[in-house]
Amino acid sequence: MTTSAAAPARLALEQACSTVGLDARDAVPVRIAENQIWRLPGRGVIVRIARPGQAAAARREIQVARWLAQNAVPAVRPIDVEQPVEADGRPVTFWAELPAHEHGTETDVALLLKQLHALPTPDFDIGYLDPFVRVAARLQAASTLNEDDRRWLQDLHQGLAAAWEERPAGLPDCVIHGDAWPGNLVRTGTGRLMMDLERLSAGPPEWDLVSTAVRMTTTGAVTPQQYATYCEAYGIDVTAWPGYRILAGARELRMVTYAAQHAASNSEWAPQAQHRVDCLRGRRGPRPWNWKGIM
User: Which residues on neighbouring strands pair with residue 36, listed in sequence order?
Assistant: First the structure.
């Protein structure tokens, strides 16, 4: 990601808000990254500005959110305006601001996934999971990595992609969240709900379950006790599935390339990006490793 891509997209914000009759003059940035989040104080509205070229994904996200509402799945809700809006080359969506909330727990993740995975597939196209989405582009942008590390990660990518195509049979495909971890699920005064719907698609439910498993087996962010509670809440331990290491490897690769891409535009993340590469390459001992979050 370039510095200009990370800069506040103020023009897009103002143009989009004007299109739907909202005033953006006192908008407050909540998160400025690849996708930008802004709050409109006093209006109960959150504005999400996606990357250029993501209009189709933004339209699908709005469709998905409305479908989840129709199926009584607790999730973020789009406000009742014609959207997404294209502004300054970027798709913009508008969402109801959440009440006071905190990140969910692993058990919250398990219970919401159990509800989501039980739904019938919607009658519109939600696409099929790509476990390696943006990995190649992130590697290309990872300018802080040396060429040897980059080539090694590219080879790993190719090997995992081939293994993914030949993965062992598992649970039946269903609707999956795509990025199911406590940071994308929150708890409010009235219950739990899911956020960040841009990766929701059809796919193997194991992909959602692997997210929490990797937080135990790879990063050490989840204790074995917390993971056992998670498995009890959902009803399955995905680490016992023969294809676990394939999906876990894909998750690890995505986490490494995410950090490496952003390290290119923010030097404070470069040590963590290199640490993750070193872990995968066997330079930091066995799993679980201590991976710190960025952004």
Answer: 49
CB atoms within 10 A of CB 110: 24
Q: Could you give the dihedral angle defined by the CA atoms of residues 139, 143, 149 and 155, in that order, rounded to the nearest 10 degrees?
A: 20
Q: Is 75 left (phi over 0), alpha (psi -120 to 50) or beta?
A: beta
Cα–Cα distance measured from residue 196 to residue 134, given in angstroms and rounded to the nearest whole number: 17
Rounded to 5 degrees, what are φ and ψ at 177? -75, -45
- pTM of whole model > 0.85? yes
- The bridge status of strand 201-203 relative to strand 174-176 is antiparallel
pLDDT in tens, 193-228: 999 898 999 999 999 999 999 999 999 999 999 999
CATH number, domain 3-97, options 3.20.20.70, 3.30.200.20, 3.90.650.10, 3.40.50.2300 = 3.30.200.20
Strand segments, DSSP code E, in the chain are: 28-31, 36-40, 45-49, 85-87, 90-96, 101-103, 174-176, 185-188, 191-194, 201-203
Token duo for residue 135: 């990995």
